[in-house]
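User: My collaborator sent over this chain with a note saying "see what the structure looks like." That's all I know about it. Can you take a look?
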Amino acid sequence: MLRSEKAITILIFIVIFLIIFISPSDNIQRCVLSEDISDEIRQWCADFRIQEKSFINSVLMTILTALGIYLLWRTLSATEQALNDSRIAANAACEAVEVARSTSKNQVEIARASAAQLREDTQNAHAALLLPSTASIFPVSETTFVCDIKFVNVGQSLATDVFHASTLLGRTSQAHGIAQARSFDLSSLQLKHVMYAASLPSKLSVKVETGGPDFLRLLGCPYFLYWVGVVVWRDVFGTWRAYKYGFILNVPVFGPVPRPKILPTACKSLDREEVAKLTSRL
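Assistant: Without extra context I'll predict from the sequence alone. Here is the result:
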């Protein structure tokens, strides 16, 4: 583009040079000043010189106008190109800003999720955790047992507003009792407030009824008793937590009734949804 502009400029100057310097002006001037020509020819030469000047001026004005129009067109083209470049640069900047915004948003979400997970992990590591430790059972009558369950706070902080509930599943076979204790729905239990704070090992008394006279034992038939329970508490972070447990009691034909044993397959910490169902009625 620069070479074509230089060529056009050189061509314009050549035309101007030819018009100005290679013209019959000198000869016309000599004819006007000569005494050998008639007045009519002298007048014609003078008119011709005036017309020549007018023509040269017109040509020069046309060339200069064309040059000005060309330069104006080049300026407008350069301005349009600059606007296009600016528009492209602005679009690229907007895309860069959008990418940066999206990246920042993703980083914030990741940081927020990481912070929430870190906070939850920290709370879980330092929250109170009540677990059943041991249970002692003794008969009050042929139809009633009283069971003292010892819960231990194995966490690193205080447990407040402790609630407890349990139910007897009854006499059943060992396999059926284990499956029933594992799948028991705790939402049917009625929680009772048993303690305001549990920072040390806490002892809870649970009354368990067999539901009728001990005919099976009188007939010489050993049997198993199963019951499940749940302990619910609030930790120092204000979060409700719960732990489900199960016990099995092997009632022999003769002799004293042994201690109940914890049923590991029925024990677990409840998740948020299960805890929410239990605490919705508190």
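A starting point for your reply to your collaborator: Strands lie at 130-139, 144-153, 159-172, 192-198, 202-209, 223-234, 240-251, 261-262, 268-269.
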